[in-house]
């Protein structure tokens, strides 16, 4: 059986919530740093064909995906003085940092040897990310049983995840540019950011020792087939997974094209992308208290849908962006995306934890690790599609990897940039809003 007070609504201290949220600074930096510029680095400096580079990223993510369910089950059944989740976070932290550094320090060899090295680095990257992320995301469902406390915990995750997004999407390319914007500079950047990821993840482990933990509710092995059957019975969770599928495919496409779009269409460098994301990050953090207040007034689902619709409308304004665009419009776009993005991140994460709590109501089994693995499975599979989609688009629409980053590409290559940066994300967001209309879970359902 579970240990003490699994049915008591537990208040979570701000220190514990913030300490747990800190882990998202590491995971978001790790995930977005690779998603944002690894394809760009491999194509521009290592000279790997866009399709092959995208396929390598996709293949490693698929390996990552299939390891998520076993990792979740192992985590659920772990017994240690550090609890079920934290031992895995401790062990994975070093390899997360190491693998990031490896990916941007590719030996100068032939394309074949370089591709093998990159593939091996991506395997280590994928497995270490799984070993940290799956147990990490299972912790909040153990930390409290309260509907609004979960929003509090996830608020801290969104804060640190937003900083991680900035570090990965803006800081990583800006640092590489500051160090020289050549192949060696990317290698130095990889070592520095890899060290940062390790330190942050280790700190998350060390500072969450007081978080409430639960023990396995069943000692016997529960077959994966039965667990999947339970998963299919949890309609709110299935809807949230479907929503995340759509959102993450669009997000992955947008992230993978961002450097190309800023350089090839707007004629900006990495520093301008960093500025844009910095403004977006600051706005997101400032808007979190407002987002939490809105969810209490109108409900999480309605607030989530409104945030996604608003985000779509702002993304569409990139269609009229140009190098001559007034700075006020550039800044305003960043602020609006930050405001709507804050709500979308917060509501999505909080509602996901609600579906974990609903699963315990349905099954009576503490299996947050398996559920976290299912979500991580979806997240990484969809994020893997981004580089594959973009690499395929660029290869078949005439992108010339020999040109300088800010040089004029062919009309078809520019069209590929617009598709990946704007139209695919918007289409996926619209699909997610449609799915959310069928989400049934309310505060009353969970508090009854």
Describe the structure.
The chain is an all-alpha fold. It has one domain (17-208, 223-447): MFS general substrate transporter like domains (Growth Hormone, Chain: A). It has helices at 14-44, 50-77, 86-103, 111-143, 147-178, 183-207, 224-233, 235-264, 270-298, 300-315, 327-363, 368-396, 411-436, 443-447. Residues 1-9 have low confidence and may be disordered.
Summarize the structure.
This protein has 448 residues and is mostly helical. The protein is built from 14 helices and no strands.
The CATH superfamily turns out to be MFS general substrate transporter like domains
Q: What is the count of distinct domains?
A: 1
Arithmetic mean pLDDT: 84
> How much is the radius of gyration in Å?
21 Å
Give the tags.
448 residues, Growth Hormone, Chain: A, 14 helices, 0% strand, globular, disordered N terminus
Q: Strands, helices and their partners?
A:
Elements: H1 14-44, H2 50-77, H3 86-103, H4 111-143, H5 147-178, H6 183-207, H7 224-233, H8 235-264, H9 270-298, H10 300-315, H11 327-363, H12 368-396, H13 411-436, H14 443-447
């Amino acid at each position: 059986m579970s240990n003490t007070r699994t049915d008591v609504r537990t208040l979570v201290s701000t220190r514990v919530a913030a300490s747990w949220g800190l882990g998202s600074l590491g995971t978001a930096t790790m995930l977005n740093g690779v998603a944002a510029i690894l394809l760009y680095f491999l194509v521009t400096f290592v000279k790997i064909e866009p399709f092959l580079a995208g396929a390598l990223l996709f293949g490693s993510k698929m390996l990552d995906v299939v390891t998520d369910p076993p990792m979740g089950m192992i985590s659920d059944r772990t017994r240690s003085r550090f609890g079920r989740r934290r031992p895995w976070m401790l062990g994975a932290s070093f390899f997360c940092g190491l693998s990031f550094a490896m990916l941007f320090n590719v030996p100068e060899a032939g394309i074949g040897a370089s591709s093998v090295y990159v593939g091996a680095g991506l395997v280590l990257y994928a497995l270490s990310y799984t070993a940290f992320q799956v147990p990490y995301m299972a912790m909040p469902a153990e930390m409290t049983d309260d509907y609004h406390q979960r929003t509090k915990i996830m608020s801290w995750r969104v804060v640190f995840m937003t900083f991680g997004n900035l570090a990965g999407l803006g800081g990583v390319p800006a640092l590489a540019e500051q160090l020289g914007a050549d192949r060696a500079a990317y290698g130095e950047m990889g070592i520095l950011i890899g060290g940062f990821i390790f330190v942050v993840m280790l700190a998350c482990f060390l500072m969450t020792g007081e978080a409430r933990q639960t023990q396995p509710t069943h000692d016997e092995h529960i077959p994966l087939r039965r667990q999947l059957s339970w998963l299919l019975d949890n309609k709110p969770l299935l809807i949230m997974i479907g929503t995340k599928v759509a959102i993450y495919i669009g997000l992955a496409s947008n992230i993978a094209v961002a450097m190309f779009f800023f350089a090839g269409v707007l004629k900006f460098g990495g520093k301008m992308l960093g500025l844009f994301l910095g403004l977006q990050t600051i706005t997101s953090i400032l808007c979190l208290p407002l987002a939490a207040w809105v969810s209490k007034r109108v409900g999480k689902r309605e607030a989530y849908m409104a945030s996604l619709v608003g985000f779509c409308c702002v993304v569409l304004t990139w269609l009229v962006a140009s190098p001559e665009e007034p700075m006020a419009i550039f800044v305003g776009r960043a602020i609006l995306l930050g405001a709507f993005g804050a709500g979308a991140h917060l509501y999505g994460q909080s509602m996901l934890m609600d579906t974990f709590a609903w699963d315990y109501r349905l099954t009576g089994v503490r299996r947050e690790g398996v559920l976290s693995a299912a979500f991580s499975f979806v997240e990484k599979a969809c994020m893997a599609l981004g580089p594959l989609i973009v690499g395929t688009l660029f290869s078949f629409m005439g992108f010339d990897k020999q040109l300088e980053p800010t040089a004029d590409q062919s009309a078809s290559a520019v069209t590929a940039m617009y598709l990946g940066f704007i139209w695919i994300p918007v289409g996926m967001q619209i699909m997610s809003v449609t799915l959310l209309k069928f989400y049934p879970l309310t505060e009353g359902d969970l508090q009854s």
